[in-house]
Amino acid sequence: MLEIKGLTVDLQDEDKSILKGVDLTVPAGEVHAIMGPNGSGKSTLSYVLSGKDGYAVTGGTATLNGIDLLEMEPEERAAAGLFLAFQYPVEIPGVGNMTFLRTAVNAQRKARGEDELSAGDFLKSVRAKAKDLQIDADMLKRPVNVGFSGGEKKRNEILQMAMLEPKMCILDETDSGLDVDAMKLVADGVNALRSEGRSFLVITHYQRLLDHIKPDVVHIMAHGRIIKSGGPELALEVENNGYADLLAEEA
Ligand code: ADP
Ligand code: MG
Ligand code: MG
Asked: Which of 11, 48, 182, 241 could form a disulfide with 16 if both were Cys (CB 3.0 to 4.6 A apart)?
């Protein structure tokens, strides 16, 4: 599904290297977690994959089902099935949440050569998915994320993901700032979307989320690289011992 080889990335405006040779393969149907100290490049990796500007790719490749992601516009990457749930969801004053979702869903359907959803079908679908995530009707009518609590913003990201039905879902610290109940809702939302044809890259600081979203593989990122990969037990090791031992091993 997602194949990243030797990816190196600099900040565009400064002479600063952030990703220093990332190798990562996520097969179809699998859930991979990335953990790692603050500042190790986890968000940068998710931004570069989704096409945020401000970064210069200086080497390596990133493909989605064999298609070169790095050459595509962000909306083309989305149409190809890539989705990023932001670490810091953006507020969009003046744009109703429901309008935003409907526009995004129909733009993607159009890009895939499918017909637009009828207003009725869209409403039915969005209401059912919002209900599962305990997002009420009022939140659907308000401008995107404006005045939402931290937890509501994160649940709204999952609602977008559920509506867009992407193939490759990247969640950047979607659990940060959530209380236990909200985290469970988010995890349930992700688990409901797990399928053979869909993969997840879950960036998290906490082992707790991985109790609910069982990963196939856990990767540790530090200093712009994946320094170790293993099974779910690697997340437990980090929870118990921190990163010190792993960083010493790397050094
Ligand atoms: P993580 O998500 O693992 O905490 P980030 O990808 O956010 O790490 O950041 C990696 C490093 O790159 C940090 O040192 C951060 O300060 C730096 N960085 C990322 N984006 C920018 C930017 N736009 N301007 C300046 N520094 C940046
Ligand atoms: Mg961080
Ligand atoms: Mg981050």
From this structure: 11
ipTM given for this complex: 0.95
Calpha distance 160→190 (Å, rounded): 12
* Separation between Cα atoms, residue 45 and residue 50, nearest integer Å: 9
Indicate if the alpha-carbon torsion angle 203, 209, 215, 219 is positive or negative.
positive
In the chain, which residue ranges form alpha helices assigned H by DSSP?
42-50, 74-79, 97-111, 119-132, 137-141, 150-164, 180-193, 207-212, 233-241, 244-250
Q: Which domain holds residue 108?
A: 2-249
Question: Residue 148 in contact with residue 156, Cβ under 8 Å?
Answer: yes
Give the span between the Cα atoms of 128 and 118, in whole angstroms: 16
Atom of ligand 1 nearest to the CA of 221: 3
Residue-wise pLDDT for 226-251, tens only, equals 999 999 999 999 989 999 888 888 87
Q: Which two tokens stand for residue 212?
A: 């609910």
Query: Computed from CA positions of residues 222, 228, 232, 233, in that sequence, does the dihedral angle turn out positive or negative?
Result: negative
Q: How far apart are CA 18 and CA 91, in angstroms?
A: 27
Q: How many domains does the chain have?
A: 1
What separation in Å is there between the alpha carbon of 145 and the centre of ligand 1? Answer: 24
Checking if the pLDDT of 179 tops 90, the result is: no
What stretch of H or E contains 2? strand 2-11
Q: Which protein residues have their CB within 5 A of the ion that is ligand 3?
A: 42-43, 87
- Side chain identity at 56, as an amino acid letter? A
- What is the C-alpha to C-alpha distance for residues 34 and 231, in angstroms, rounded to an integer? 12
